[in-house]
Amino acid sequence: MTKEIGVGKAHSKIILMGEHSVVYGYPAISLPLNRIEVTCQVFPSERAWTLYAEDTLSMAVFACLEHLGQQGAKIRCQVESMVPEKRGMGSSAAVSIAAIRAVFDYFEEELDDQTLEILANRAEMIAHMNPSGLDAKTCLSDVAIKFIRNFGFSEIELDLDAFLVIADTGIHGHTREAIRAVESQGQKALPLLQELGNLTKILEKAIFIKDLMTMGQAMTKAHEKLAKLGVSCQKADELVAAALENGALGAKMSGGGLGGCVIALVGEKSQAEALAALLREKGAINTWIESL
């Protein structure tokens, strides 16, 4: 049995803290962005689905069809996304999850959470070669996620009277290049990575006691360390500086770096709206506001 149209949705994510140091065993904290969504629709087609190399949508659908024993199915997909690509917001993971849900919906098959995560991570391997699983895990979650390499995932409850302003630099992030740039520094990078790891722990404690000032300070210090590692970019530095000059409690780049987004912490909704508008004036091509 099939439906006329199968529909699936997923939301995006953003890294709050822990970029790059997470590769070296320190924690990272990632937030779901529940209102920034991807929608996928599956329709009948005259042609069978084709697997294309290095394409997460293609791989996600193929993995579903294989799982369901429908390899020869004649279907096509239509994706509508609010999530910009290559900005550290989990675009590929969100597309994969939405597509998997849409395919299962089309074939009127039950989809449990474990199967969804396994299939999403299979698709993510196409996009990221050796993904940690953090993007998929956060895009599947309604709460913040902490990840430590070789230890796994845990949930963090956020109940803060605060807002996160996310600003898109308009520049594609280059995670692999940034990771290689850090690796090439060898021992010289280790003190900065350790400081980043410690800042993530400080921020986690601050979340628990709802200390916005300490959270903001940790974020700003983290940006300074990431810039010293050489993984920020001029546009991100400019937007971080503008946020701090205009009332943000803290601000930093987010994601792999060399592009992508910056995030800024503020205490009030009106302040978040004003800051979002100002960052667009300063060159951000888009902004979002997330309640924490």
From TrEMBL:
Cellular compartments per GO CC: cytosol
Domain GHMP kinase N-terminal as annotated: residue spans: 63-137
Keywords: ATP-binding, Cytoplasm, Kinase, Lipid biosynthesis, Lipid metabolism, Magnesium, Nucleotide-binding, Transferase
GO biological process terms on file: isopentenyl diphosphate biosynthetic process, mevalonate pathway
Keyword Lipid metabolism attached: yes
Domain GHMP kinase C-terminal: 205-283
A Pfam entry, by short name: GHMP_kinases_N
E.C. designation(s): 2.7.1.36
Gene3D superfamilies recorded: 3.30.230.10, GHMP kinase, C-terminal domain (3.30.70.890)
UniProt cross-references to SUPFAM superfamilies, sorted A to Z: GHMP Kinase, C-terminal domain (SSF55060), Ribosomal protein S5 domain 2-like (SSF54211)
Gene Ontology molecular-function annotations: ATP binding; mevalonate kinase activity
PANTHER family in the record: MEVALONATE KINASE
Protein's name according to its UniProt entry: Mevalonate kinase, putative
Taxonomic lineage of the native organism: Bacteria, Bacillati, Bacillota, Bacilli, Lactobacillales
Gene from which this protein is expressed: mvaK1
